[in-house]
């Protein structure tokens, strides 16, 4: 029985060099090693397609429309999103640079800042948030499925409701959620380097669905005039700080992609492919999508007397008493949003969680397996985390206030991880790295620090978190009052989070310089030409195999001619043995330099 269990466990192991020790395996599985050239398939146009595809998603619509319900007029939210997303772009490019240059994924490059064994908390944090987002995005996608089914079968809403009133939902929505969750599973199977074609399709489907809904909404509202004539309900300092908060919401929407950027940048054909294509396309695409959300939300105020912030609820309202042609149009739009949300969930959540789970449980998990675990954990984790914000996980999209609370919490954790990472590469080591030291537990390695952990990284992260903690607590629990100054610092989280954490990390490095600190910026791998741990292990395996072969050949009796063998066959066999012995050294040499 024990033998069978071991055999099963052996078959379940992830792809890795067979003879790695447990400690080496924790640091150097195939998914954590630098990406090979054949998997670097993303050029500049791939990144353009990626951001065009990513910006057309329901979250972007909802964030923009929530600014209308907060009391802004149409142009004020547009100004907020242009500023907010334009400020996110540099963070993404700066944090993705080392990965684009060296082909590293987030769990590996994170070791430069937090140490080879100090990455547990950053990785765990990112994995947790990715799982929460997975569950919430599935609920949002499930609402799109509900629109689609209702458009085809209007009686779907008459399904007997078995859910308690306290849950805030009904059985038909739960069924839709389960359908979307099942649709999500095949998308996880696609490897990162093959996602480009699905993203190109999303870049077409997303804008088509969004523009169709926009045109329809403007027509139903009687044109653009009534939409753009609606005034803001806030004035003075309240208006100013609401706009600051709205800029922060844009940052919170993309803060996950600031730390997720390494996973995609590692697939870049060359480092420049991930620079201008992201700096320009990302803010432009999100600003356009946000504008669509602003107009669609503003048009709902004209149609129904008050703004409806949730685009899906607008579609649900349009289905009330709808004729067949309107139902067909809404079914088409819903299918587009379903596809968009499926890809959004994979790109933004399952890949990030997959990379992180690979780093946490390297022997048995790969990026693909980690993605499937995120699909399961996400449902459970979403419920636990969302308890902080409201009673049930699906209530994240119940009101704009709940959504903005979650976005702020999202930002406070991840921004304080990105700050020290950016500071380490650009200000402390100035592009100097030792790739091989990322995969060994060597006390002489650059990233060993103190017992494998870098206290400077944790100091920076904690300081960035601490300065925003009072405002965070008051936002989550309004009964706890803090000073106006603390709240205003929290509203500026998009600057104070990465700014304070990165600055503290830099100052700590000045006081206690880490290995590899440089005065001149130069992107160079100081370990270039040295064998990496997986190559060394493979070489040792080749040496052992070669030694066994030579031992067997040297002790074997020389083959002689006999009745069943011709002299020519004998000479051929002995020549092969001599050739193997003479060339074993060359085989070993090639395995080292490979």
From TrEMBL:
Q: Where in the cell is it found?
A: Membrane
GO: which molecular function terms? nucleobase transmembrane transporter activity
Could you name the domain of life of the organism this protein comes from?
Eukaryota
Give the organism, scientific name.
Kwoniella mangroviensis CBS 10435
Claim: Lyase is one of the keywords in the record: no
Question: What protein name applies here?
Answer: Uracil permease
**UniProt KW keywords:** Membrane, Transmembrane, Transmembrane helix
How does the protein's chain sit in the membrane according to the entry?
Multi-pass membrane protein
Which InterPro entries does the entry link to? NCS1, Pur-cyt_permease, Uracil/uridine/allantoin_perm
Main localisation, per the record? membrane
- Which family is this sequence assigned to? Belongs to the purine-cytosine permease (2.A.39) family.
Do you know which Pfam families this protein is assigned to?
Transp_cyt_pur
